[in-house]
Amino acid sequence: xxxxxxxxxxxxxxxxxxxxxxxxxxxxxxxxxxxxxxxxxxxxxxxxxxxxxxxxxxxxxxxxxxxxxxx
Length: 71
Known about the structure:
- This protein is mainly β.
- It is 6% helix and 34% strand.
């Protein structure tokens, strides 16, 4: 991680990486162990991203921190 930012992979496949769709998953449960923080993000909020970099104060995704009631 780079200065309190954490990069997560949101794709599958060995040679060709494909994004997940709402037909594959409902949510991503992403955990940053060093800061003991979970993000529970609906798949439609990440779009076709193959990776996502999060910080505890990332405006767009901070509302999903520890949102276990979504799942």
